[in-house]
Design goal:
Layout lengths: L2 H12 L23 H8 L2 E4 L2 E4 H13 L3 E5 L5 E5 H10 L1 H4 L5 E3 L3 H5 L9 E3 L1 H4 L3 H20 L10 H20 L19 H7 L4 H7 L5 H9 L6 H19 L19 H10 L4 H20 L1 H22 L5 H10 L1 H19 L6 H32 L7 H23 L3 H24 L14 H38 L4 H37 L7 H22 L4 H21 L16 H30 L16
Antiparallel strand pairs: 1-2, 3-4, 5-6
Helix pairs in contact: 1-13, 2-16, 3-4, 8-9, 10-13, 11-15, 13-14, 14-15, 15-16, 17-19, 18-19, 18-21, 19-20, 19-21, 20-21, 20-22, 22-23, 22-25, 22-26, 23-24, 23-25, 24-25, 25-26
Length: about 675
């Protein structure tokens, strides 16, 4: 049995009273708040931690933990003195780890439907609101019970191949998510509980009274020297034995239960580098406690690591200057060990990436550029309109530079090419689409390229921010095994995504053409030169899409042969790439053969956009094939919506086509007059 499974079982044993009784929780009223100094925050955010297979700054962990709980990267609240505060995620995690009683009163749990808290017996506030841990505490017992019940139901749903009778409804899913978030928050609160004898930051109200009393007498660090060498399985047997009448044995059993309560609570934040360079996994304080128990030889090292954490907690109580100095020393010691191990080399750069908010800033530039582009439509043919287009193009270039800079930082941090997961594809495809739009503007100088660039920038950057907030996990996580090769990431993946970007630009041009064409048809005035330019523009982009999609697909086949021993296996992702290649060939051959004309080219380009989105997002969510590693919950709803929007433009194209046919049947309206009188 793995250590994490055993500790999970122990935590359930120790927290069993939570399902039976929950004492009244104090009213959640935040006291006056004393902010951390910038120097302290700076020292803390560079503390290293191993998470999701790589060593990173705790700054990153704080960001995604708060994003997971709150849906935002800041914690906002008011204090008794009437002041409003908005904490950065690093400041928030500092409070959670070192001032837990304050953190428990911060409203960080976003509840989208008040029925969720009603289910657990907590009085609701508004329909959608934020709740603090203390506000949810009266319903903690019911929440644990329901979360376990819904987790089992979800597991049955997955094991029964998506049987509808086991599918969670909306409120059940929210309760399960809240239960997981509250549990994760409790683990953060309990990380350094072993350094505070008698001071339980979490679950004190549901622990047996004898353990609460015993906690004030026992120091878990000093307890290591007096405990026999014991394996985890032996400890489980001792804890599970019924208490005897002997006072010494009862004390010993209680001490063991308390020891492992601390070990279980201190799991999750792996901030301790391993003792040996031959070991890859960093340890949490709970892991160090367990290791010290299992081996007397490891106890001196274990005590040294635990005492260094104890010094951090003591320094925080001593004052800001002492705390900052202790954080600096701890971080420097971590850094030296990590450097020797070849880890955490770019941790400072990672802090710069998230602190700089490059993608958010790029979105701001693109939004301003889009507004200016819209203003240029008021007088498109004038000098005023041209100046506005130039200004919008410059802002789009600035947004592109910020986007590319952020992508470059991510590449350096991971020592990887720009695309390793779905989130990366959004950033990269946005950058390519903006570049293509600006290139089109340089060639045509009619404002369409700028419009395509700024619209792609706004849509792409918004999607990237929305995706990150929804997933609430580190977007630079460990690679899937099949992707763990830089050469093929540079070649196949990069090239195929350039093809995706071109396909999406072709679809946007098609939508623009079909909407403008319909407007001109109903206005009775058609600018044929403008429409022809759009058609030539789209024809070129479709050729561009075909080239990169075809080359990328062939390279993907070579990679498949290298990885799986076959060039082609009709995998859904392979089929999606093939569909793009075939459809672009259909468009180009149909145009060359005269089977489709301008309207047909653009309607098929819109269909190409639908195929690209299916290959880009859809096949990853089918749950079958060798490429089903990018599952994103709720993506089908977004895909259906995008396809419905595309269908609207196809209907517009069909209307224009029927209008065109009807006019050709009436010579007096659209056909040129005959050059000679018709014979009688």
């Amino acid at each position: 049995m793995k250590l994490r499974h055993i500790l999970a079982t122990l935590s359930l044993i120790l927290a069993a009273p939570v399902c039976l009784e929950a004492r009244d929780a104090p009213e959640s009223v935040l006291p006056n708040y004393e902010a951390w100094s910038p120097e302290t925050v700076h020292a803390f955010e560079h503390i290293l931690i191993q998470d999701d297979g790589r060593v990173k700054p705790i700054y990153t962990v704080a960001r995604f933990k708060l994003l997971q709980f709150s849906g935002r990267t800041s914690a906002s609240f008011s204090t008794q003195d009437g002041e409003s505060h908005s904490l950065h995620y690093a400041e928030w995690l500092l409070d959670v780890l070192f001032r837990g009683e304050i953190a428990k009163d911060m409203p960080i749990f976003t509840i989208d439907d008040s029925e969720t808290v009603v289910q657990i017996g907590v009085s609701p506030k508004s329909k959608r609101d934020k709740y603090s841990y203390n506000e949810l505490l009266p319903g903690r017992a019911r929440l644990a019970e329901l979360a376990q019940q819904y987790a089992e139901k979800q597991q049955q749903h997955e094991q029964s191949e998506k049987d509808p009778q086991f599918e969670l409804d909306r409120i059940e899913g929210m309760v399960l998510n809240l239960g997981r978030n509250v549990s994760a928050f409790e683990y953060l609160l309990g990380q350094f509980g072993f350094t505070r004898p008698g001071e339980f930051l979490v679950n004190e109200n549901i622990l047996p009274d004898e353990l609460v009393a015993l906690s004030a007498k026992i120091d878990p660090i000093e307890m290591l020297d007096r405990m026999p060498e014991m394996t985890i399985n032996q400890l489980v047997q001792v804890i599970q034995q019924p208490p005897s009448g002997d006072e010494d044995e009862a004390m010993f059993s209680g001490a063991l239960r308390l020891f492992f309560f601390h070990a279980s609570s201190a799991r999750g934040l792996n901030i301790v580098p391993p003792e040996s360079n031959e070991t890859e996994e960093w340890l949490s304080a709970g892991d160090v406690l367990i290791k010290g128990l299992e081996s007397k030889e490891a106890r001196p090292w274990a005590k040294e690591q635990l005492q260094s954490i104890q010094e951090l907690v003591d320094a925080q109580k001593a004052g800001p200057e002492q705390f900052q100095k202790a954080l600096d020393e701890y971080g420097a010691n971590q850094k030296s060990i990590a450097t020797e191990r070849g880890e955490g080399e770019h941790s400072a750069l990672e802090v710069q990436l998230y602190r700089g908010k490059w993608f958010t800033r790029a979105l701001v530039f693109f939004i301003i550029a889009f507004v200016i582009t819209a203003l240029s439509w008021l007088s498109p043919a004038s000098a005023y309109g041209r100046i506005m287009i130039i200004l919008a193009s410059l802002l789009a270039i600035a947004g592109l530079v910020l986007n590319v800079y952020g992508i470059s930082l991510r590449c350096i941090i991971r020592d990887r090419p720009p695309i390793t997961n779905l989130y990366d594809t959004v950033l990269f495809i946005t950058a390519v689409a903006v570049f293509l739009g600006l290139f089109i503007e340089v060639v045509t100088r009619i404002g369409v390229g700028t419009l395509l660039a700024v619209f792609s920038g706004v849509a792409g950057m918004f999607l990237s921010i929305k995706y990150e907030a929804k997933e609430a996990t580190d977007t630079m996580g460990q690679l899937v095994a099949v992707l763990d090769t830089n050469f093929w990431l540079w070649t196949h993946v990069t090239i195929i995504n350039i093809g995706y970007a071109a396909g999406m630009i072709a679809a946007l041009i098609g939508m623009l053409y079909l909407s403008v064409r319909l407007f001109m048809d109903f206005a009775g005035k058609r600018n044929k030169d403008f429409l022809r330019v759009l058609t030539r523009m789209n024809y070129g982009i479709i050729c561009f899409c075909l080239f990169f999609s075809l080359v990328g697909t062939v390279l993907g086949g070579i990679w498949a042969n290298y990885s799986w021993g076959r060039f082609w296996g009709w995998d859904p992702k392979e089929n999606g790439a093939l569909m793009i290649c075939l459809w672009t060939l259909v468009i180009l051959h149909g145009r060359m053969a005269g089977w489709i004309r301008e309207i047909g080219v653009h309607m098929n380009a819109v269909l190409l956009g639908g195929i690209v989105t299916f290959s880009w997002w859809g096949v990853n969510n089918l749950g079958v094939g060798l490429h089903s590693y990018g599952f994103t919950e709720g993506v089908w709803r977004s895909l259906y919506l995008s396809w419905m929007i595309m269908a609207v433009f196809l209907v517009m194209g069909a209307i224009s086509w029927f209008v065109e046919r009807s006019r050709k049947k009436k010579p007096g309206r659209s056909d040129p007059p005959p050059s000679k009188p018709l014979p009688a």
